[in-house]
Amino acid sequence: QVQLVESGGGLVQAGGSLRLSCAASGRSISSYTMGWFRQAPGKEREFVARINWSGSVTYSVDSVKGRFTISRDNAKNTVWLQMNSLKPEDTAVYYCAATWNSSQYWGQGTQVTVSS
């Protein structure tokens, strides 16, 4: 079992930055693909970014490319999402997910609110 705890969310003005953290416990996530997802009010959860087990390959959705950066430190069992140039449409609950083969774990989410 992997437990994931997100932190770093909050209220920020448009154009500002936040850094989300996802701390894992229970077992090492060094073999896991890690991802960030978000869910805005009244909308379905959507993919934001993912990073492979070594951190050598990342992918993000077009709407955040050039603004958000996903990174990880397997020694710290932690994944981050650096979010710059935030927009009101980035407002959502952000979730961290760990995936390996058929196993997938989710955190409880952290709220990000961007005011205009």
Could you explain the architecture of this structure?
By secondary structure, the protein is mostly beta strands. It is built from no helices and 11 strands. The strands form 2 sheets. Strands 2, 4, 5, 6, 9, 10 and 11 form a 7-stranded mixed beta sheet that branches. The protein is globular and about 40 Å long.
Produce the secondary structure layout.
Elements: E1 3-7, E2 10-13, E3 18-25, E4 33-39, E5 46-51, E6 58-60, E7 68-73, E8 78-83, E9 92-100, E10 103-106, E11 110-115
Parallel strand pairs: 2-11
Antiparallel strand pairs: 1-3, 3-8, 4-5, 4-9, 5-6, 7-8, 9-10, 9-11
Count of individual helical segments: 0
The fraction of residues in strands falls at over 45%
CA-based shape: globular
Low-confidence stretches: none
Radius of gyration based on Cα positions: 13 Å
Number of strands: 11
> How much helix is in the residues?
under 10%
Cα distance spanning the termini: 40 Å
* SS-derived structural category: mainly beta
Described by strand count, sense and barrel closure, the largest sheet is: 7 strands, mixed
Overall pLDDT, averaged? 97
Order of helices and strands: EEEEEEEEEEE
List keywords for this structure.
116 residues; 7-stranded mixed β-sheet; 11 strands; 4-stranded antiparallel β-sheet
Short description:
The protein has no helices and eleven strands. By secondary structure, it is mainly β. Strands 2, 4, 5, 6, 9, 10 and 11 form a seven-stranded mixed β-sheet that branches.
